[in-house]
Amino acid sequence: MVSSSHGAMDCLLGKLGDLLTDKYKLLKEAKREVRSLQSELGNMYAFLKDMSGTQNPNEQAKCWMNEVRELSYDIDDSVDEFMLRVEHQESSSSKPQEGFKGFIDRCLSLLTTIRARHQITKEFRGLKRLAEEVSERRKRYKVDDASSKQQHDDTTIDPRMLALYTETARLVGIEGPRDELIQLMMGKDDQLKVISIMGFGGLGKTTLANEIFRKLEGQYQCRSFVPVSQKPNKWKVLRKLLSQIGYAAPHNTNMEVWDVDELISTLHKFLTDKRYFIVIDDIWDAKPWDTIKPVSYTHLDATAWSIIRCALPQNKNGSRVIATTRIEAVATACCSNDYEYVYKMKALGTEDSRRLFLKRIFGSEDTCPSYLEEVSTAILKRCGGLPLAIITLSSHLATQPNKLNKEPWEHTLNSLGSSLELNPTLEGMRQILSLSYTNLPHCLKTCVLYLGMYPEDHIISKNDLIRQWVAEGFISKAPGQDPEDIAVGYFNEIVNRSIIQPAHTDSSNDILSCRVHDMMLDLIIHKCREENFVTASDDIQDISGMLNKVRRLSLHLNGVIDGKSLGTIQLSHVRALTRFGTSTYIPPLVEFKHLRVLNLEFSGGSPQRMAMDLTGMCSLFQLRYLKIVSSDKTELPSKISGLQQLQTLEIEAHKVQIPADVVHLRRLLHLIVNGGTSYPRGIDSLKSIRTLRFCQLRMSSTDTIIEIGALTNLRDLQLQFNHIRQSESGDEEARQSTAALRSSLEKLRDLRYLRIMHDGCLDELSSLSTTPFLLRRFVTSWGWHSRLPKWIGELHSLHHLELSVKEMLGDDIRILAQLPSLTSLSVKIQANPKESMVIRRTGFSVLKHFEIRCSRVSYLTFEEGAMPRLQMLEIYFNASGWDRHGAAPAGIEHLSGLKEISVRIGGRGAKESNRRDAQSELTNAVDLHPGCPTADIMCLDDMWTNFDDNVMEEVQEAVGVSP
C-alpha cells in the first residue's frame, strides 16, 4: 500500500520479498544484497510508522521522514524497472526457434542474461548503500532522541471555545436553524430525547448549540455544556458535568480520585428526578445506545459518548441532550439511529454571508465602499458560506489600521490561495479544519490528500476517485475482498466524516460525485506541500525551478502554453498526471516513465479541432488509469497492447477510434468510450472486464454482440446502437441484433447496471431464459417493449427503472408495485390507455421518484396511501384533445410525502383553449395537496410525446392535416 505518510515503503518491502523467489533467478550475491536492503528498509519503516503517529514532530524528524519517503519512491521505481525487464525476457524467450539459428539465439541470450544478472547485483548494492546513508543520518542527528523529547502543549486554547462567548447580536443567519431545533426539542414526549447537530468543521455547530443553550435558560433544573474533542479525558469530562449541573460533593470528599464508575453512578443518581438539558460538543466516536452494556467503563475501548450516555437517566421529565459532531455515523448513533433527530448544518447563503462579513468589519451590513465590492465578493466566494472562515477573515480585516484601503483586502485574498498562509490570525481556523484530517487513519489521509489533484470548484466523480486510488496503490488488500469495493468504503467514510460534500446522488441516495470546500482544499494543498505528495499549479513557470522531485503533478492550464516550459522538471518520477483547462498543451508523455494515472480533461473546444499528441503514451509501462475528456478530435496510438497494467480506459471525445489491440489488455477492468467510431472485434478475450460502455455499435455486428456474452464478470453494460434504417433490411438487422443481445444477456449473471440505447422494438429482450437477479439499474432509451417484460418482477435489487412500453395494463402496474427496492421509476406509454391505471395503497413502498409520459393522464389515479415515500412526481402529456378526454390525474393530494411536482404539457398541434385548460386543471389539482409541494407546470408549444399512430391521428386532426 502506498500512503502519504509512508511513501511506497509498504509495497516496496512486498516487492523485495517477491524478488527472492525463483521466478527472478537472482544470483546468490544479488539475493544477499536484496535481503540486506529489505532488512534496512524494514527497520526504517518501523521507525517511520512510529514517527508518523506523532501529533507534532519537530523539524528534524520531519526532514528525516521526508527523506525516507522519497527514498522509498526511488527504490520502488528501480525495482519496477527490473521486474519489467524480467517479464520482457520471459516473453521474448517463450517461443524459442529450432535448429542452428535457435541454438545461436539461446547462447546469445545466456551471455546477455549473465551480464544482466551481474549488473542487477551492482544496482541492488547501490540501492542498499543509499538506504544505509539515510539510516546513518538518523543516528548522526539523533532523530530518535529529538522525537522522544517532543512535548505537546496542553495549555493551548481551543479556538472552538470562542463560539461560546460570541455575542448574540453579532450572529447572522442563526435564527432559523435555532428555532427549528427548539421546535424539534419541545415535542410533547416527556421521554429523554437526544438530538444531533452534524456538519463540516467550521459550519457553526458549537455556535448553534450554544445559542439554543442560552435561549432555553431557565426552562431546566440542571444544565451543562461540555466539549469532548478527539482525545477526551473521560474523568475530566464527567467531573465537569457534575460541577455544571450543580452537584456539591460531601465535605472532605476528593472527587479527583474517583474512578469512572463512581462518577457515572453519582451523575445518574443526581439527575434521576431532574429535568436537565445537556450539550455534548464535538463527539468523534459513538456507538448506538442499544449496543452499550452497563459494565465498567474504565476500559480503554469505551467511547466518551457511551460513558456520558450511561450517566444520563432516561427519566420522563422532558430532559433533552444535544450532541454535535462532524461524523454522520456518530450523529445517528447518538440518536439511536432515529434520523428524524439528526440536524445537518448548511452553509450560509450569499446574502447572510455578506451580512456577517460586513457587520464584523464595519459594524453595519450596509456599509461597504464601492471600490471594495469586487474584492469582498471574491473573498466571500472562497469562504463558501463557512461561518468560521467569514468570521476569521472579517475579524482580521477589521483590526487592520488601514482597513479602508484596498491593499490589505487584496493581500488577504491572495494569501487564501497560498494555503491560508496569511498570518497567525488564521492559525486558529486551520487548527479547526485540521481536526477532521488529523483524526483519520493513514489510508484515509492518503485518499484525502489525493483530492489536491483536482482544481477548486471541480465536481469529482466517485468512480474516477476510487479507480485512481486503486491504480495508485492506496487501497489496502484484504483476502476475498475486491480493492474497488474497499475503495468505495473509504469514499463513504470520508463523506461520513464531512471532509467532502456530496454533489450528485441517485434515487437510492448513493453518492455519484462530490466537491471539496475551498477552505478544506486549501488545507489539503498545504499538507500536500509539506509531504511532497501533490504538486498543483495553474502556472508552469511556478514549478519549473522546483528542487524536489515531483511525485504527482496537477496542471490547470488555460491559453497558449510554451511547450518547453516543463523542460527543467524531472518528469520520470511522476506517478500521476492530471491536467485541466482550455489549453491543448500536454507535457511530453514519453518522459513519464513511472506514470500510474493519466487524466487529461480539456474544457472547451478548439475551432480547428486540433488533435492532441498522445504518441508517447505507449511507453508508460506502469499506466493503470487513462481518462481523456475532450470535445476535439482524439487520436490514440494505433497500438496500445504494451500497456499491460492498464485497468481503466475511458475516452469522451468528439471522434475516437479505439485501437484493435485493446483486446489484448488482460488486466483491463473498465472500457468506457463515448464518441467511438469503431468497436473492436475479439472483445471476448477481456475476461476480467467489469464495465463496458460503448457508443455507435453497428446493428449488423451480431458476432461482436455475441462476444459480449463471454464477459461473465461484467457489472456495468451500456451499448448504443446506430440509428436503424427505415427499411425491411433495417428491421431485420434490428431483430437480429436484439436476438444476439438477448443471448448475451442470458449469460451475464453479475450485471448491476444495464442501459440499452436501441431505436426499435425490444420484445426480443422480454423473454430472457436467465434473469440477471443482481440488476440495480435498468434503462432502455429510444426503443420500446410491447408490454412490461415479466422477468422485471424478479429483480428484487432493482432500484432504478426507465423503459418505454406500447401499453401498460393493471398486471404490469402490480408487477412494478411489488419490487421491494424500487426508488426511481420512469415509464413512457405510447398507446392510448385501454383501462384506468390505478396506483393502489399497497406496493411502491420505497419509491421516491415517479415519471410518467402518456397521452391521457386522466386515466391515472392515486388511491389514498399510495406511494407513501414519493417525493418527486413528473408528468408529461399532450394537450391535444383535452376538451374531449382531458382531466388531471385523480388523487395527487393522496401522495403524502410529495415535495416536488413537475408537469410538462406538449402544446404542439393543440388548440390554445386546450393548452390553457390543461395547465389550469393541473395547477388546481396540485393546489389540493395539503403539503403544498413545489410545483413547476409549463406548456411547451414545440413539444409532444412520441405516441403511436392512433394518437398521432388525433394530433393531425386537431391541426387540420390528413393522416
From TrEMBL:
UniProt keyword list: Coiled coil, Leucine-rich repeat, Nucleotide-binding, Plant defense, Repeat
Span of domain Disease resistance N-terminal: 8-95
Range of residues in the leader sequence: none
Pfam families on file: LRR_14, NB-ARC, Rx_N, WHD_DRP
Family per similarity comment: Belongs to the disease resistance NB-LRR family.
Annotated protein name in UniProt: Putative disease resistance protein
Domain Disease resistance protein winged helix: 453-524
Any one Gene Ontology molecular-function term assigned to this protein's record: ADP binding
CDD domains in the record: RX-CC_like
GO biological process, one term: innate immune response-activating signaling pathway
Residues annotated as domain Disease resistance R13L4/SHOC-2-like LRR: 573-934
Residue stretches making up the NB-ARC domain: 179-363
Repeat listed as a keyword: yes
